[in-house]
Write a structure and sequence with these properties.
Protein name: DUF2934 domain-containing protein
Strand content: under 5%
Largest sheet: none
Shape: elongated
Helix content: over 70%
Order of helices and strands: HHHHH
Number of helices: 5
Number of strands: 0
Organism: Acidithiobacillus ferrooxidans (Thiobacillus ferrooxidans)
Distance between the termini: 59 Å
Pfam families: DUF2934 (PF11154)
Radius of gyration: 29 Å
InterPro entries: DUF2934
């Protein structure tokens, strides 16, 4: 069977499903004029078609996992912005460059704190993560403010 969902049903389970379906094919005919091979082939087609239509059950993400993913995505987006601004800052003059560099340095420190909060959140269990969440949100808000201050230099 070349089925993208074959890992959802073991070969043994598939075999039992086909055997049961083949039995019901023969039973519907009252076991008259029975052709076990034809019943098996027909049952195999039905079961394989059914398995192809059956989605593999996926584990739903918890609120904690969704929050962690959101934080990581936000950090990646900010990293892209910062990378572009660093290139532009190198071309700036005097006081503007020093101001941008100071804010970029502040961002680096905040980024380390944020990464540590994300790590703490991931390592923490499902219980009590709300307390860590509050701290992480505070750090993300600070970073967001710093990002906005840096962005003002490039508008």
């Amino acid at each position: 069977m070349t089925n993208q969902h074959s890992e959802a049903v073991s070969p043994e389970q598939r075999h039992l499903m086909i055997a049961e379906a083949a039995y019901y094919h023969a039973e519907r005919r009252g076991f008259q004029e029975s052709d076990p091979i034809a019943d098996w082939v027909e049952a195999e087609k039905e079961i394989d078609a059914m398995l192809r239509r059956t989605p593999i059950p996926t584990k739903e993400k918890t609120a904690k996992e969704i929050f962690e993913d959101h934080l990581e995505t936000q950090l990646k987006e900010w990293d892209k912005q910062i990378s572009g601004w660093k290139r532009k800052a190198k071309k700036a003059d005097g006081d503007i460059r020093r101001n941008i560099d100071a804010q970029l340095e502040m961002h680096r420190a905040q980024r380390v704190t944020a990464q540590n909060k994300l790590k703490e959140l991931r390592q923490g269990g499902a219980h009590g993560w709300e307390e860590i969440k509050d701290g992480a949100e505070h750090v993300w808000n600070e970073i967001h403010q710093t990002i906005n201050r840096i962005a003002e230099h490039f508008r």
